[in-house]
Amino acid sequence: PNSYETIVQWRSATKRLTEFEYTLNELQLAKQNSKIKFIYVSNEQSTHIENLTIQLPLKIGENDGQILIKHLNLVLEPHQAVLITGKTGSGKSTFLRTLAGIWPHGSGMITFPLGDTVAFVPQKAYCPLGSLRHCLTYPSISFSSIEEDKKIRNILNLCQIKYWSNN
């Protein structure tokens, strides 16, 4: 193969992996600073949203991000259909990202029945907040198993990023 093409491919892959690692670090930091609390309760059937405020991330020089949804209180019953409408940019998709745990900007509390998960197909691909293991197994919230850990290590090895297996 052409050496130049090989170098270009290597550079492109390195850039994507570097950006991925940077994004993982940024997401972890945002998650640590998030004021949105998720609680899973074993004796509950409904999803409760309490005093949920969702905002855009802070920009340099700003004290607060733009608020999209303010002090939302809502109970979602099992099998209840909900229609979310609004203008472009009003926070519809961001609300769903928040419920899925991939949007940390805001405050409030969301209580889910134990074992429930939220999954949706976003407009853009997103990496969920958490460890690399969580990203690879999303939306499952299952605990680590030896068999699952072995599969993840094999995948990382195939991608030649085995050194990330401790993340």
Automatic annotation (TrEMBL):
Ranges in coiled-coil conformation: none
Gene3D superfamilies found in the cross-reference section: P-loop containing nucleotide triphosphate hydrolases
An MF annotation (GO) of this entry: ATP hydrolysis activity
UniProt keyword terms in alphabetical order: Membrane, Transmembrane, Transmembrane helix, Transport
One Pfam match: ABC_tran
Record field: transmembrane: none
InterPro entries: ABC_transporter-like_ATP-bd (IPR003439), ABC_transporter_sub-D (IPR050835), P-loop_NTPase (IPR027417)
Annotated ranges, domain ABC transporter: 70-113
Family of this protein: Belongs to the ABC transporter superfamily. ABCD family. Peroxisomal fatty acyl CoA transporter (TC 3.A.1.203) subfamily.
Stated name of the protein: ABC transporter domain-containing protein
Source organism of the structure: Adineta steineri
Higher taxonomy: Eukaryota, Metazoa, Spiralia, Gnathifera, Rotifera
